[in-house]
Structure formats: C-alpha cells, structure tokens
Amino acid sequence: MKFILKIDQDLKVPEEWIEKWKISRVALLKSLGIEVKEIITQESKRGYHHWIHCESKKELSDEEINMLQFLCGDDPGRVYINSLRIKRGVKNWNKLFSKVLWRKAVMPLIFISGEGEIFDFKKIKSYRLVKI
User: Fold this and answer.
1) pLDDT tens track for 32-74
2) Who wins on pLDDT, 45 or 123?
3) CB-based burial of residue 69 (10 Å sphere; 0-12 exposed, 13-18 middle, 19+ buried)?
4) What does the domain layout of the chain look like in residue ranges?
5) DSSP code, position 96
C-alpha cells in the first residue's frame, strides 16, 4: 500500500533540526514496518508542512494513518479534526489546511456535522449553544 503522511508543524526551527527530524521519522516509521520513499518539506507561514511518501505491506486504515501522522509530530489540533472527519466518514479527511479553524481550544469556531459538513461560526448570523 502506498500513502502519504501529511505533517503540519507550527514552529520554525534551524534547518539542521529539520534534517535530524527527517532521519528520526524514517527510523520511527521503519520500526513500525513502514518504508519511507521520500520526504518533501515546504516552509509555511508558522513552520513547516511535510509530505512523507510511504509504502507498507499491510493495508492501513484511515485511523492508523492519522495515528502515524500524530507519531510523526503532526499538529494535535489537526489530528483531532482528522479523527472527527474519519469518524463521520468524510472521504477526503487528510488535508493540510492553511486557514486557521480555531483560535482557542475552549471555544471552537467550527462545527463538523454528522454528515461531515463544516460550519464556520464566524459566518453564521445567530446560533444557540445547547448542552447535551
């Protein structure tokens, strides 16, 4: 199985750290039976985006791929959102987004419906918070 791990790191570090990070990710993934074919890194506004091209003899579930991204240092908020997308059956769940979806963990600015639709609270004129 071929797949791409998408990693969002929101921290700028020296270039030599990135090179050591790549070596450590290859070792980590190898220990889990995953072969790394290539790592592409692009600087983002706040840090780096990495695309890790991988192969596995075993077929991996979406949840396992999300876990691998977490182990590789993916942004925890992105891991959480991806978990919600996977649980709701969103087919294209694994996106590296450029738009900030929330500012504080206490009050998210988005809501993902059971059907996987994303609602932006900034664009909704009025809403009512209901405790369940």
Assistant:
1) 999 999 999 999 888 999 999 999 999 999 999 999 999 999 9
2) 45
3) buried
4) 2-120
5) -
Is 2 strand, coil or helix? strand
pLDDT at 4: 97
Tokens at residue 83, please?
Answer: 């978990």
Mean pLDDT of 121-126: 54
What dihedral angle (degrees, nearest 10) is formed by the CA atoms of 94, 85, 81, 60?
A: -50
Give pTM, 2 decimals.
0.73
H or E element at residue 62: helix 62-71
In CATH, the number for domain 2-120 is 3.30.70
Q: Please, are residues 25 and 70 in contact by the beta-carbon 8 Å criterion? A: no
